[in-house]
Every structure is written in C-alpha cells, then in structure tokens.
Amino acid sequence: MAGILKSVSTKSKINLAKKKFAIVVAEWNEDITESLYQGAFDALIEMGVKKSNIIRKNVPGAFELTLGALWMAEKKEMDAVICLGCVIQGDTPHFDYICQGVTYGITKVNLKTQKPVIFGVLTTLNKKQALERAGGKLGNKGEEAAITAVKMLEF
C-alpha cells in the first residue's frame, strides 16, 4: 500500500474480521470517487476486514451521501459508514451550499446513530487538487477515511 498505511500500524486493537463497513460513494466526479473507493477498500482489506463485510452503495452526488449514510448506519449489523465524494468549486455559490450541507448532514448522522460515519469528501478548488488527494502526490483520502473508521471503532 503506497499511502498512509505504511506509516501506521495495520494491526487493530479489535477483531476487524467481524466488523461490517458500508462505503457510500458519490457518482458525481466518478474518476475521483472511484479512486477514493479503491483506497478505502484496499485499506480495510489490509487491516483485516473481510471482503464480504464491505458493502458499497452508490448515490448520485455528494449531497445524497447524508441520506445514504443514514440508511446504512441505521442497519443494526453495520458497524461504521465511510462517505466518499468530491465537490470541486465552480463559478457559483453552489459549492458552498453543497459542502456545508454535506458536512452538517454527516455530522448529524454520526450523532443520531451513535456510529462512526466518516467524512471522506474532497472539497477542492480544482480537479488537479482532487486528483492529488485521490491517489496522487498527496495520498489517497479514501484510505485515510478507512483508517479513521477503524480508529473510531477502537475508541
């Protein structure tokens, strides 16, 4: 693994083979979100999560991550949810509204369900910045989101 897993222990304090993770992925900016997903998936496998315990669900865009996350977190068998998306700033305030709504929504899902719901949403000024954070020179934020989910379960 080329990213952050090299610098952190892949041994968890808990038995991850018995934990179930949902990864909710926005389809908007798919080239970015697919890379984020692969980073998260690979990190979970590397840390000992069974492939069959990783459930992927797609939503149309970043704004829909909150409802998708809620539906997955409300499932009794689900231990943690990882939300992956990418919002790239444009010429209108749309970027601000989407980013604020998704941030607030994911926070509410955390508090409502009392489960780790991880914010793995890139909010960048341009596509180059997004690519750098989705497996480029700045690592893969999907991988970091998976590690965060595990750390929160250990908490």
Order of helices and strands: EHEHEHEHEEH
| Helix proportion range | 40-55%
CATH topology: Rossmann fold
What is the fourth-level CATH superfamily? Lumazine/riboflavin synthase
Query: Main beta sheet, described?
Result: 4 strands, parallel
Enumerate the spans where pLDDT stays under 50 for 5 or more consecutive residues: none
Average per-residue pLDDT, rounded, comes to: 93
Oligomer: single chain
Number of domains: 1
Count the beta strands: 6
Count of runs of 4 or more consecutive helical residues: 5
Overall geometry: globular
Summarize the structure.
By secondary structure, this protein is of the alpha/beta class. The protein contains 5 helices and 6 strands; from the N terminus they run βαβαβαβαββα. Strand 3, helix 3 and strand 4 form a beta-alpha-beta unit.
Features:
Rossmann fold, four-stranded parallel beta sheet, two-stranded antiparallel sheet, globular
Q: What does this protein structure show overall?
A:
This protein has 155 residues and is of the alpha/beta class. It has one domain (17-154): Rossmann fold (3-Layer(aba) Sandwich). 43% of the residues lie in helices and 22% in strands. It has helices at residues 30-46, 65-73, 94-113, 127-133, 141-154; strands at residues 21-26, 54-59, 80-88, 117-124, 134-136, 139-140. The strands form two sheets. Strands 2-1-3-4 form a four-stranded parallel beta sheet, sandwiched between helices. The chain has a two-stranded antiparallel sheet with strand order 5-6. Helix 1 (30-46) packs across helix 5 (141-154). The longest helix has 20 residues, at 94-113. The two termini are 24 Å apart.
